[in-house]
Sequence to fold (369 residues):
Amino acid sequence: ASVGRSLGMIVSRELIKKDPSQSEYLSEIGSIVSAACLAHDLGNPPFGHSGEEAIATFFSEGKGLFLKEKMNEVEWKDCTIFEGNANAFRLLTHKFNGRRSGGFVLTYSTLASIVKYPYSSVYADEKKQKFGFFESEKTDFEKIASSLGIEKLKSNPNRYARHPLVYLVEAADDICYQIMDIEDAHKLKILTTEETKTLLLGFFDESRKNRIIETLHIVSDVNEQIAYLRSSVIGKLIDESSRVFIENEDKILAGEFEGTLVKNIPESTRKAYKNCSATAVKKIYKSQEVLDIELAGYKIILTLLEHFIEAVLHPEKSYSKQLLDRIPSQYEVKSESVYGRVQSILDYISGMTDVYALDLYRKIMGMEV
Fold:
């Protein structure tokens, strides 16, 4: 959110220079991007991306496969490629039982700024398998798109163009997770101090690198040195990403800009970013600690889905009644459609923290009383 606000404020300042008459609206870009950054991961289930995959595979190749004949094509696709981005849009806009109409009642600009993939699940790429809204929220997104003047792509009329501020939210996300993961890996001793310094100093030319090294000599605390390097890298990425946005404003507004802002920064910085990414994939995301948590998370989510979906489909059973009493009243477990009832369980489970999901799993399995 902090990085997003910085990106938004830089872009805002430059756009106001171009057209001072729009300053009243353009000055809000930093606040919109910051709010969207805070909200964009709201729909992610426990255990992150492995949690998303666990939910998807429960339906596509697990015990939920029998539900295919009980849903239409779009509803089934929503389940088999469950997507945290689409779930965030649902949580922010859906009227849950006992809640007010309009969900979190955010502005249309803020809501549109979190939809990185503005199309439904049936139009997702086979390889990437990303989409922006479930069938249940399709009408809501279309209303927002119509009000904001977001048009469908000429090259693919099944998809909308992105709202311009999506690019800034995405850039903030790309910058933070990549650089912060390197710093965190250093703290966890997955990366050595030398490896970490080499990766982060790689973002700078010789002149700037020498000035940074001089500054590093001022403090002896290694973690403080890495924190300074991290903040320097993030500052550079903010400046270069916002410059890409300004230089490509017309293409972005026309829905013709391709790729992300980070993929269009100068080659030297992009190369350093790719080095961080390659190191993260090789040494961080495949480390034993991470894999062990993902394996456990898979099992926990599959078990919770199996028990709770069985309960909403057969609420008359004694055990089902006990399980359903465990679910807060805001979730629509009595929905008329199978899709609606399955969604109520996905709403419940995806809103859990890792620790809460583990605790509930232990109770259901009789491991903890």
